[in-house]
Amino acid sequence: MNRQLRSTSIWLVILLGMVLAVSSCKKENTPDNNTGDNLEFVSLVVEKDTIVVQDVTKVTATVKGANLTYSWACDNELGIIEGTGSEILFTICHAGQFKITCTVKDASNNQVIKDAYVTTIE
């Protein structure tokens, strides 16, 4: 009986060692939906790309990703951008061609940038 108990104990120790070895294997990282690999700027669309001075046009960003923040800028300090998020309104008080830049970031601080142009006429 002592021999049988010892044999069973040895097998239990071996089995326990195997379980511990398997459970401590390093798990590979798998990408989730919040990585920069999944951040994609699909389009930046200006509703009316030519407007009369002081008219307003809508600019819409379509971006694939999660937990997104949008920032908007015009290459002319007199350009007025109203709104937040994926859609803004743009106007300016003089004629010319103006670049509107949309920068989108996700929670991991990955970013995508796209430009669109609006021409204003007198």
Q: What's the overall average pLDDT, rounded?
A: 82
The percent range for helix content is 10-25%
Q: If you compute it from the alpha carbons, what radius of gyration comes out, rounded to the nearest whole angstrom?
A: 29 Å
* Named CATH topology: Immunoglobulin-like
CATH architecture, by name, is: Sandwich
Query: What is the count of structural domains?
Result: 1
The total of helices stands at: 1
Query: What can be said about the biggest beta sheet?
Result: 4 strands, antiparallel
Strand order of the largest sheet: 1-3-6-5
| The CATH top-level class label | Mainly Beta
Outline of this structure?
The chain is α+β, with helices and mostly antiparallel strands and 122 residues long. The protein is built from one helix and eight strands, in the order αββββββββ. It has a single domain (36-121), classed as Sandwich (Immunoglobulin-like).
